[in-house]
């Protein structure tokens, strides 16, 4: 099992330059994520969700504030942080095991150890028997399983997921949500999921961070105090989903139902 990291985002600001004019993208984002916690982030297009993930994985820099993993500043990419995008981004000329093994090129392991680790993660995502298959021989859901295995094979402290099931049909998406839950429980890894799907966010997350745009900022943090496996048809599930959806429409909600973004992570867990 991988070591689960502690993430702290403190007063994060990010802007781009567009024709010489500053364009604020993220404004004063502060969020603490405990080891092994699963956090879902939702928001409309343009609220900076994907930019936040790119900053956390180290694909972008030039920001103000602090991004800390286990108390250390995040600088550049690292094996400690794995990411899965909406597109699987597999290399078409490599088979399943070779696509996964790419993530171990710089790992301090022997070739035998790398082979064992690749096989373990093929089994983790349920692709035994497809080791020699190429991406064009896989379904979209299977390709995303390979991408998840590739992100996890280094045993990172944090897994970042940027709309990983957004391009899949509804049935495949629901199945992979269940599989992701199983993998998260097996690995115990700190996980952040960016999604447009509120039901997906509530089904998977320990808490749902609702963002609003222009510039992107945290509007509310909604805890999800439901045990797994969760029943999407239950009244408790529906009520939490409605609380999150209400934030998008600006509808008023009762004070105990939602947690202001300024509250501490500890108080969030006991808000309902």
Report on this structure.
With 272 residues, the protein is of the alpha/beta class. It has a domain at 1-80 and 193-272: P-loop containing nucleotide triphosphate hydrolases (Rossmann fold). 32% of the residues lie in helices and 25% in strands. The chain has helices spanning 49-57, 96-101, 111-124, 140-152, 170-187, 198-204, 235-249, 265-268; strands at residues 7-18, 21-33, 38-43, 64-69, 72-73, 81-84, 158-162, 190-195, 207-212, 217-223, 259-260. It has a 7-stranded mixed sheet, sandwiched between helices. It has a 4-stranded antiparallel sheet with strand order 2-1-4-5, with helices on one face. Strand 9 (207-212) and strand 10 (217-223) form a beta hairpin. Helix 3 packs across helix 4 and helix 6 (198-204) packs across helix 7. The protein is globular, with a radius of gyration of 19 Å. The two termini are 31 Å apart. Mean pLDDT is 88; it is low at 255-272.
Give the SSE map.
Layout: E1 7-18, E2 21-33, E3 38-43, H1 49-57, E4 64-69, E5 72-73, E6 81-84, H2 96-101, H3 111-124, H4 140-152, E7 158-162, H5 170-187, E8 190-195, H6 198-204, E9 207-212, E10 217-223, H7 235-249, E11 259-260, H8 265-268
Parallel strand pairs: 3-8, 3-9, 6-7, 7-8
Antiparallel strand pairs: 1-2, 1-4, 4-5, 9-10, 10-11
């Amino acid at each position: 099992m991988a070591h689960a990291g502690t993430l702290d985002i403190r007063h994060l600001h990010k802007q781009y330059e567009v024709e010489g004019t500053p364009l604020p993208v993220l404004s004063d984002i502060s969020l603490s994520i405990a080891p092994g916690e699963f956090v879902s982030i939702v928001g409309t297009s343009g609220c900076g969700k994907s930019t936040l993930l790119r900053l956390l994985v180290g694909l972008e820099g030039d920001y103000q504030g602090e991004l800390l993993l286990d108390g250390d500043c995040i600088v550049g990419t690292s094996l400690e942080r794995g990411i899965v995008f909406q597109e699987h981004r597999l290399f078409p000329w490599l088979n399943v095991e070779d696509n996964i093994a790419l993530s171990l090129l710089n790992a301090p392991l022997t070739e035998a150890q790398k082979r064992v680790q690749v096989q373990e993660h093929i089994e983790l995502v349920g692709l035994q028997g497809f080791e020699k298959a190429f991406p064009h021989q896989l379904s979209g859901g299977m390709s995303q399983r390979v991408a998840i295995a590739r992100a996890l094979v280094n045993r990172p402290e944090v897994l970042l997921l940027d709309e990983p099931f957004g391009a899949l049909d509804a049935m495949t998406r629901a199945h992979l949500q269940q599989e992701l839950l199983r993998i998260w429980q097996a690995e115990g890894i700190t996980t952040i999921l960016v999604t447009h799907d509120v039901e997906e966010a509530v089904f998977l997350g320990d808490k749902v961070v609702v963002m609003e745009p222009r510039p992107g900022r945290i509007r509310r943090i909604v805890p999800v105090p439901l045990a797994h496996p969760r029943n999407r048809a239950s009244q408790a599930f529906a009520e939490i989903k409605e609380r999150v959806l209400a934030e998008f429409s600006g509808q008023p909600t009762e004070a105990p139902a939602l947690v202001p973004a300024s509250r501490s992570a500890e108080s969030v867990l006991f808000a309902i």
